[in-house]
Amino acid sequence: MKTFVPSYYGTFRCIAERCRHNCCVGWEIDVDEESYARYAAVEGDFGARLRAGIDVSGDAPCFRLGAGERCVFLNDRGLCDIITALGEEALCEICALHPRYRHFFADRVEMGLGLYCEEACRLILTAREPVTLTVLEDDGGGEPPCEEEEEFFAVRARMLEIVQDRTRGIAERLVRLEDFCGLHRDSRAPAAWAEIYRALERLDHSWDAVLDRLSALTDFDAEDGRDTVWEQLAVYFLLRYTPDSLDDGALACRVAFCLQAVRLLRALGAGMPTEELIELCRMYSCEVEYSEENVEALLSQVTL
After folding, report:
1. Beta strands in the chain (DSSP E)
2. Which SS3 state, helix, strand or coil, does residue 89 take?
3. Between the CA atoms of 91, 94, 99 and 101, what dihedral angle is there, to the nearest 10 degrees?
4. Contact in structure between 272 and 210 (CB atoms under 8 Å)
5. Distance CA 217, CA 51 (A)
């Protein structure tokens, strides 16, 4: 089984205490069974602290949250006490995986970095070369891809080729992707989309200010000379969301979702300094990608 990752993947490093949006704050983190058993065997004072810091009253064990909704193992320096005491290999599955996502196929696993992590977002948006999928690991296992998977890989390769065609402007590339997938351009105004977003589950009320700006836009057309940035964003969404079409058969719908996300962020981010743009995309990810209900709601809203 081969593990494929985007070509920028190997440069990712958690920035720990320098992170402005620590993934150990505000999230209830489940502890998988294997890690829970491992924590139960840790001896001494830290072992006792580990067990006291895990809430077992719900459907699955999870780390308790303290003041400010901080994981009780996140110290004042913004570092994880579990890593400090036991090493990175002691992290539970969710903590070890974040901000990564994975898709499983017959002959491969595809893994990427999510926009919610500000450092991952920075890597994605500032990558200059066209993104390719490279082999990270190969254990020699796996089965040959089925016909459906082979067809998907071929179609996705063509979609990525269209988006990464740097002989054309990004606006033209997005239209060509629509045409390739047989999609119709969504005619709703930004204000209409702002109301769609307002109806979603809210995770951070600072998102309201972004939606206010969206309501004030007259259209989604924006040119700011950063075609490579929007290309990388489009590639990210396509790699993250189209594989699930093998389960639900909704490839065109998922591509429309990706296109709408790129157009929204491109319109809102036109002319923004890079750091502000990274924060905008991170906020979008927080509000949309980390809520299955919000993703499904937007998938139901796109125009085919």
Report:
1. 2-6, 54-55, 62-63, 100-104, 108-113, 133-138
2. helix
3. 130
4. no
5. 51
pLDDT tens string 115-169: 999 999 999 999 999 999 999 998 887 788 899 999 999 999 999 999 999 999 9
pTM here is 0.89
SS3 304: coil
Closest residue by Cα to residue 103 from 293, 233, 253, 254: 254
Compute the distance between CA of residue 57 and CA of residue 216 in angstroms, rounded to an integer: 46
- 3-class secondary structure, 43: coil
C-alpha–C-alpha distance, residues 253 and 227, integer Å: 24
| Contact in structure between 196 and 301 (CB atoms under 8 Å) | yes
Which residue type does 168 have?
R
Backbone angles phi, psi at 65, to 5 degrees: -105, 140
Helices (H), 91-169: 93-97, 118-126, 147-163
Q: Which of 161, 148, 157, 155 is nearest to 181 (CA)?
A: 155
- Both ends of the chain: CA-CA distance in Å? 35
Q: b/e string for 151-182 if b means 16 or more Cβ within 10 A? A: ebeebbeebbebbbbeeeebbebbbebbeebe
- Cα–Cα distance, 57 to 66 (Å, whole number): 16
Higher pLDDT, 22 or 253: 253
Answer for the pair 265, 174: CB distance below 8 angstroms, yes or no. Answer: no
Instruction: Say which residue the tokens 């308790």 belong to.
Output: 64
Phi, psi of 135 (to 5 degrees): -85, 120
β-pairing verdict for 100-104 and 108-113? antiparallel
Distant-in-sequence, close-in-space partners of 24: CB < 8 Å, separation ≥ 6: 70, 71, 73, 74, 80, 95
Listing from the earlier edge strand, what are the strands of the sheet with 2-6? Answer: 100-104, 108-113, 2-6, 133-138
